[in-house]
Design brief:
It is built from 6 helices and no strands. It is an all-alpha fold.
């Protein structure tokens, strides 16, 4: 098991806009990778890869969506883990329906309203990559390529050596 020493807050803030920005970037990268692995292992439906349905803050957005299922006249904002998971299942089903209907060209298709910032004319929600093309080796290769790509930037910015090792 590989353990890495976490950089201090002072060192992180010297290289990022803020400490929360560092963790936000790191968490989003981990969440998106984890979602892809769950889909590959058939623990999540393929619709989960429709990243356009996510906000930049996936967990916060998911909680807001779950809370919105409570109803307009309810003041209850806290719920149990079981209630939360039940609401998340409902959201997953709604996203699946939304994905299927958005790619349906039939005139009788259900059309969900979309905010103008989320409206994308050229986006086909059925454009998901074939899962046979995605493997854990390819994910690791992409991560390594991203690491190699950032090396020159780290040298230009004279970032501490502990970041280069990661």
């Amino acid at each position: 098991m590989r353990t890495t020493k976490r950089p201090s807050i002072r060192k992180i803030e010297g290289n990022f806009i803020s400490f929360p920005a560092f963790y936000s970037i790191e968490l989003n990268a981990h969440v998106l990778t984890f979602i892809l692995l769950l889909v590959l292992n058939k623990k999540l439906p393929i619709e989960s890869l429709n990243i356009c349905l996510f906000s930049s803050q996936p967990s916060e957005n998911m909680f807001r969506c779950a809370r919105s299922l409570t109803g307009p006249f309810s003041t209850m904002t806290n719920f149990t883990v079981q209630q939360f998971l039940s609401k998340i299942r409902k959201i997953s089903i709604l996203n699946e329906i939304k994905t299927l209907e958005a790619s349906n060209v039939d005139s009788n298709a259900i059309k969900f309203p979309t905010h103008h910032k989320q409206h994308q004319d050229n986006l086909s929600l059925s454009m998901l990559t074939n899962l046979d093309e995605i493997t854990i080796d390819k994910i690791e290769e992409n991560i390594y390529e991203a690491y190699e790509y950032t090396k020159p930037f780290m040298e230009k910015l004279q970032m501490p050596s502990f970041l280069k090792k990661k």
